[in-house]
Design a protein that fits this description.
Layout (H helix, E strand, L loop, with lengths): L1 H18 L4 E3 L3 E3 L8 E5 L10 E2 L7 E5 L3 E8 L5 E5 L9 E2 L4 E4 L15 E10 L9 E2 L10 E2 L4 H12 L7 E10 L16 E7 L4 H14 L3 E8 L2 E7 L4 E9 L5 E10 L2
Parallel strand pairs: 4-13
Antiparallel strand pairs: 1-2, 3-5, 5-9, 6-7, 6-8, 6-10, 10-13, 11-12, 14-18, 15-16, 16-17, 17-18
């Protein structure tokens, strides 16, 4: 009887050890499950449906990220830029921010439900998008948190760099059975040939102005600044377009408004951008 109990205990321990394996940290793929589970996830950009190439984007250009799983799963999307800055893209607090994905369905970010675009803003270099799929919801509180005073729909990420993200995620997924999680990585390049427009200050400065040269179109430049304001919590209102100029009105909480004016000088790639903020008395 004692021999049976000892044998059963050893067998159970071996089963747990086989079910849980140490994640592999990879310079190419960030974090990898060393066991190939039945669960699969694929991530790709709109410019490369295979997810195997490195398409090029320029500042102000729209990007759409897509993810698909072969089983029902919770999907977490991270973006690591060329300087090691980490953003948690999914889940988020926007209309399509729920990260539970049904089997064999494609989830896009932004989706058609979202009233905004996801615009490239630099820095130049290769970006990696990591998709982590899990059969159970994960606790990422040590990696990213939605704060009570969060002014954007994205969580605040507390880790930095690809290695830092990989190490933090390793701790999260290590207790899981190996068959219950998997990752995939897509890459895209932000071109250094196109100057990234200057980013406006996030303060309530009455007026912010900038003059610069860029090969972006008038609409791409306008969208770049419109999305900067939306990221600060402003809601877009009426916009107007005339030859060489676009303007738009934005509203914020407690009566704060902003007016965005983007003007391209005639027969030139020089832009004049003005953001005027005003608080109603």
């Amino acid at each position: 009887m004692k021999h049976f109990l000892i044998t059963a205990t050893i067998a159970a321990a071996a089963s747990v050890a086989a079910a849980q394996t140490t994640p592999t940290i990879s310079s190419q793929s960030i974090i990898v499950n060393p066991v190939k589970p039945d669960l699969q996830v694929n991530v790709w950009t709109a410019k490369d449906t295979t997810g195997t190439k490195v398409p090029t984007y320029v500042a102000g250009e729209h990007i759409t990220l897509n993810v698909k799983t072969n089983q029902d799963a919770y999907v977490y999307l991270f973006n690591v830029d060329g300087k090691g800055n980490v953003d948690l893209i999914l889940p988020n607090r926007f209309a399509s921010g729920e990260n539970f994905v049904r089997a064999n369905t494609t989830k896009a970010f932004p989706s058609q439900q979202d009233k905004f675009t996801f615009d490239i803003a630099g820095p130049a270099g290769v970006n990696k998008v990591l998709a982590l799929a899990s059969k159970t919801k994960l606790n990422l509180d040590d990696i990213a948190q939605f704060k009570a005073d969060q002014k954007t729909g994205f969580a605040t990420v507390t880790v930095s760099g690809q290695t830092g993200l990989a190490q933090a995620l390793s701790i999260v997924v290590k207790p899981l059975p190996s068959k219950d999680w998997v990752t995939d990585v897509a890459q895209y390049q932000i071109s250094s040939k196109v100057a990234t427009p200057p980013v406006p200050t996030t303060t309530t400065t009455t007026s912010w102005k900038s003059t610069f040269q860029s090969t972006l179109s008038l609409r791409e430049t306008y969208n770049f600044y419109a999305n900067q304001l939306k990221a600060q919590g402003y809601v877009a209102g009426l916009s107007t377009t005339s030859p060489g100029q676009m303007t738009g009105d934005f509203t914020y909480e407690q009566g704060v408004t902003a007016k965005l004016t983007v003007k391209r000088r005639a027969q030139s790639m020089t832009y004049d951008v003005v953001i005027q903020r005003q608080t109603k008395s």
